[in-house]
Amino acid sequence: MKVKICGLMDSETALKAAEYGADAIGLVFAESKRKVTPEKAKDIVSVLPAEVLKIGVFVNETKEEIERIASIAGLTHIQLHGEEPASFCQSLSFPVVKAISFEGNEALSEITQFPTDYILLDGPKGKYRGGNGIVFDWQQVNTSYLEGKKVILAGGLHLENVEEAIQIINPYMVDVSSGVETNGIKDLTKIKAFIEKVKTLPVGGKR
Predict the structure, then answer these.
(1) pTM
(2) 2-200 in CATH: which number?
(3) Distance of CA 52 to CAs 12, 141, 164, 170, Å?
């Protein structure tokens, strides 16, 4: 099972996350308490191994600005967390992760028609589009809609609930941010424990 640590803001923490086994790191360029500048993101990306995915998080941003930031920072993937249409995904020159705040299976069936390999399932919208640490009811998700997609599961995951979440959704990757923080700051002990737990869990293999 793959792990993404999102909302990283410094090189030291990002490097440690990679050393602990993180497969992807998320850098937030949308309005958020975890927002970083393109230049700071470049510093973070520069210390990471090549095989770690560097995913930039954007909300309703212009194509030009996304491409500009991605080029400066050295991103490998773009995560779209707003109302971006399918045509917008196709217009970008980077692989896209399309995020959806799960609010029912009707919207889920529409989002899976997007021309992207990755779908990120997140909790309900809060103050920000993502990173709100809000769990949703995984049992409500009709996973048959997700066949053929690499599903990244986010939304309030932490050490105590990630095993249940994986058993129900069987995602390609799990995404954690607030669940590995203490007082709003990334906690290396929690990051290490979370990654170690996920890496030891059995994978169902449906996707």
Answers:
(1) 0.93
(2) 3.20.20.70
(3) 15, 29, 26, 21
Q: Is 89 labeled as catalytic in the residue annotation? A: no
Distance CA 27, CA 34 (A): 8
| CA pair distance 157, 177, nearest whole angstrom | 8
Residue type, 50: A
Which residue type is seen at 17?
A
Strand (E) positions, the chain?
2-6, 24-28, 53-58, 77-80, 96-101, 118-122, 150-153, 173-176, 181-182, 185-186
Q: Is 6 a catalytic residue?
A: yes
Q: Where are the domains of the chain?
A: 2-200
Per-residue pLDDT of the chain (207 residues; tens, 9 = 90+): 999 999 999 999 999 999 999 999 999 999 999 999 999 999 999 999 999 999 999 999 999 999 999 999 999 999 999 999 999 999 999 999 999 999 889 888 888 878 898 999 998 765 555 455 679 999 999 999 898 899 999 999 999 999 999 999 999 999 999 999 999 999 999 999 999 999 999 765 443
Task: Spell out the residues 6+ positions from residue 3 whose beta carbon is closer than 8 angstroms to its own.
Answer: 21, 22, 23, 24, 173, 174, 175, 176, 194, 195, 198, 199
What residue type is 162 in one-letter code?
Answer: V
